[in-house]
# Entry
Amino acid sequence: MGDADSLDQLVQAAVAAGIPAVHLVRDGSEVRILVRAVSGLAPVRSLVAKPDWIEAAQALPNATRRGERVVIDLAAHERNGGGFTELGMPGSMRAAIERELLAPGGVILVASDDAAVMARAMAAAAYAPGERHVVEIAADRAELDSVARMDCDAILVRPNDDRALLAGAFDHAQRGVRIVLGIEAPDAMAAIARLRAVRVERHLLAFALRVAIAARTELRLCPACRRPAQAEGSESALLGVDPGTVIYRAVGCDACDQSGFSGSVMLFETVVIDPGLRRLLAEGGDVAILARHAFVRAPTLAASARTLVREGRITVDAAIRIARAAGAGSVSTTSHPHLLMA
# Structure
């Protein structure tokens, strides 16, 4: 099984190795990793599990906990693969939005300032096992009305601030058609603000919107040559972590053509529209108030970036850039509340 810096990487490595189940067992101050083999459970001694992996594993949709043991059913993981699993969304985020993604009707809002990332995230939002009838339309209300009568599992729409198309999308969503709406914006709250700016009616936003998802990509540090270091004072302050926190820096080696990077990693933030947010949307609550409610328990893009920094997957500079982009993306007159906020 390959190396893993996080629980999600452990699961991905186990799936790639054909392992049907992973056990995490708390043993005093340590967490042991065991995998199902032909002869029984085999310990994994080459990886050191972090104490918080037990709670993180428990949040996975295919995990069961009893006492100090969490078992991750990777056979179920295989059946539920695809979609955001393939894009690397953390299991806790997938678990939070899973019910809303599989339910019929409603709007799934996807925000990104990168067209290619948006396309991948929109496709993931429309994914479900089995054959699906998914249609992507151009910015045309008449085409949307026609396609909505074709028994689609999902309709992918990029409205480009077309108010008539947006009104039609939310109207069809209320009638039971699943709409995946792509909005160019740096984060979920900025996307909601943009919908308000083109005057999507409050009650439509409140009662048709199900989930808002923001996605972006960053270069992935080369695991073969990345170098651990302690965060400097200015980096700690900008990133919102304790001074001396272990981070990783790019170095460069033959495996990455001396670039220090290998591939890319996708970051996410997810907002489930719960009754409290629904009420705030219906009342026209300020974006800052929406964000405070939305991110009480869910991580922002900035918080997701900090996690990836600690795991050695992206650089501190990338995380700081993400936090600043989130702050600059707010169109509210109030300072954006989730700049560098956990």
In short: Confidence is low (pLDDT under 50) at residues 329-342. Residues 7-79 form one domain. The longest strand covers residues 209-221. The CA atoms of residues 1 and 16 lie 8 Å apart.
